[in-house]
Amino acid sequence: SHLSRLFTSHLNISFIEFLNRYKINIALKLLREENLSVKEVSYKVGYHDPNYFSRTFKKYTNMSPSDLVHRRKQ
User: Fold this and answer.
1) pLDDT of res. 1
2) Handedness of CA 25, 68, 50, 5 (dihedral sign)
3) Tens-binned pLDDT, residue by residue, of the chain (74 aa)
């Protein structure tokens, strides 16, 4: 908890928030550049529940991962 407080005080963002943004940025790259399913990407970036991954992805990008996959295929 001490490390988390230091992280927040220096970067003005919680460690969990930072980690989620980092994972979602990697997921964006994988979904755009690789031929992987949403489930595969969720596991690769460290989410063990693809539904939770999808909700988190949408929170940060305002679109679902499957929407991004469909756009890639067009």
Assistant:
1) 85
2) positive
3) 898 899 999 999 999 999 999 999 999 999 999 989 999 999 999 999 999 999 999 999 999 999 988 887 76
The amino acid at 28:
L
Task: Give the distance between the most distant pair of CA atoms in the chain.
Answer: 47
Which amino acid is it at 56?
A: T
Look up the pTM and report it. 0.87
Given a contact cutoff of 8 angstroms between Cβ atoms, the answer to whether 14 and 8 are in contact is yes
Number of H helices, E strands in the chain: 5, 0
**HSE (side-chain half, CA atoms, 13 Å) at 25:** 6
Query: Is there a contact between 60 and 20 (Cβ–Cβ < 8 Å)?
Result: yes
CA distance 41 to 26: 9
Q: Which residue has the tokens 């230091």?
A: 6
